[in-house]
Amino acid sequence: MYSVILADDHPLLLGGLQQSLLATPDINVVGVAANGEDALALIHDLKPDIAVLDVAMPQMSGLDVLRASKDQRLRLKVILLTATISGAQIADAISRGAWGILLKEYAPEALLDCLRHVASGEKWLPAELVAKASEAPPVAALNKIELLTAREREIAALICGGLSNRTIAQKLGASEGTIGIHLHNIYRKLEITNRTALAALHVQYMAARDG
Question: Residue 192, class by beta-carbon neighbours within 10 Å (0-12 exposed, 13-18 middle, 19+ buried)?
């Protein structure tokens, strides 16, 4: 059974989502919150497997809670729930390791499928939302990823998964300084300056390649 917390500042939606999961044997809603600060407190206290967080909440947004959970290295999978989300917010969410982004209009029907996908280790990032992660870059920009070495592409993929330099270093058996050098070279080759831009470009490259 997977433990879940739900956080949304709209009581009717929050109650509806909680009710829809009550009869689900493999999902246990262990807490609900109406703002980001309370959600983060629940995450600390209850240590759920998954947190479903409204992007726009009082005190702390869902993105703020996602950032805090990453900064504090909390073992948690975050699904963002939203009525509307900008391309920049999507890119930010992806770069910080969000496991899912779910539009509220689909939430009552799709939440359970989304939760089960994420619980099993699969990301829930609909193509139409990923496409908004940045304005579609020119083909030349996407093709620059071909200039990366195999190790640089591996690091880019891990960064897109929201991992820190330290975690990537541990995973690859390298020093944190070495990862930093690789990252500097990646930025230089792709002519970008930050992880969010890298995540957006990498996601679009993979979508173009697989499409």
Answer: middle
